Amino acid sequence: MLLRSSLFLPVLILASSAALLLGAWGFELIGGLLPCKLCLQQRVPHYLLAALIIPAVVLVRFRAFRLVFFMAASGLMAAAAFLAAKHVGVEFGWWQGPMDCGGRVQTIGSADELFSLERPDCSKPTYILPGITMAMAHLLAVLPLLALSLLGLWRSVRALRVAPAA
Description:
Elements: H1 8-29, H2 37-50, H3 53-59, H4 63-91, H5 111-116, E1 127-129, E2 132-133, H6 134-162
Helix pairs in contact: 1-2, 1-6, 2-4, 4-6
């Protein structure tokens, strides 16, 4: 009955979000792909969600905290989806990117080089598969997490509504 456990959805959402961060860092540090300004902004909701890992695992059994967790996760995943969609739009020229986003894509060999290099242009897509950019892949990965967060939120609200008053 793992699927019915009160821990399943929070752990799945947190682990998936952490995996997305690890993947981004892997492409950056192992693959040598420097992130642009929008790429770095897309990571922020995942970092904020990571801050909820310990409280979520410890407190998720309490209905009220579960509601708060899913509200936070839904908001953060919606923000992540918005930032990813914004980045995809910039890559395809649908709208303008940040004015301070520029440079050229370079490979990196050390952490010192990573912090001293100029960031790549946000409008230049980085393809990880034919036709799929990093921003698209992020959007495609975040949308199911948003759906799971909203499902958890809906279940939490419903559980509070039908729960007897203590």
